[in-house]
């Protein structure tokens, strides 16, 4: 019984473990050809689920000076 209680406590402690997570994003734009850049953001002292929600893929359409282009950010946790 003591082992079961101790095991349950350890599982709960690890499930809510906070640490640093790095989100790496490749940004691609169709403006002026196809240009890609990579950025990294570090989420400090947070849970994995919170970091995962912030590190997302996005696609945006823009028009500038009558020219339409799309930017895409493909992000993944490292």
Shape: elongated
Taking all residues together, what is the mean pLDDT? 84
Q: Give the number of DSSP strands.
A: 4
Q: What is the CA-based Rg, rounded?
A: 20 Å
The termini sit apart by 38 Å
Major beta-sheet overview: 4 strands, antiparallel
The figure for the number of domains is 1
Structural class: alpha+beta
By oligomeric state, this entry counts as single chain
Low-pLDDT runs of 5+ residues are none
Spatial sequence of strands, sheet with the most strands: 2-1-4-3
Question: Strand content of the residues, in percent?
Answer: over 45%
Order of helices and strands: HEEHEE
Give the fraction of residues assigned to helices.
Answer: 25-40%
Number of helices: 2
Overview of the molecule:
This protein is an alpha+beta fold and 78 residues long. It has one domain (2-77). The protein is built from two helices and four strands. It has helices at residues 2-15, 48-54, and strands at 19-29, 35-46, 58-64, 67-77. The protein has a four-stranded antiparallel sheet with strand order 2-1-4-3. A hairpin with a 2-residue loop joins strand 3 (58-64) and strand 4 (67-77). The longest helix has 14 residues, at 2-15. The two termini are 38 Å apart. The mean pLDDT is 84.
């Amino acid at each position: 019984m003591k082992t079961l209680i101790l095991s349950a406590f350890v599982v709960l402690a690890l499930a809510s473990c906070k640490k640093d997570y790095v989100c790496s994003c490749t940004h691609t734009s169709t403006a002026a050809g196809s240009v890609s850049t990579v950025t990294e953001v570090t989420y400090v002292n947070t849970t994995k689920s919170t970091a995962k929600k912030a590190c997302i893929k996005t696609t945006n359409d823009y028009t500038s000076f009558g020219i339409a282009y799309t930017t895409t950010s493909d992000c993944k946790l490292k």
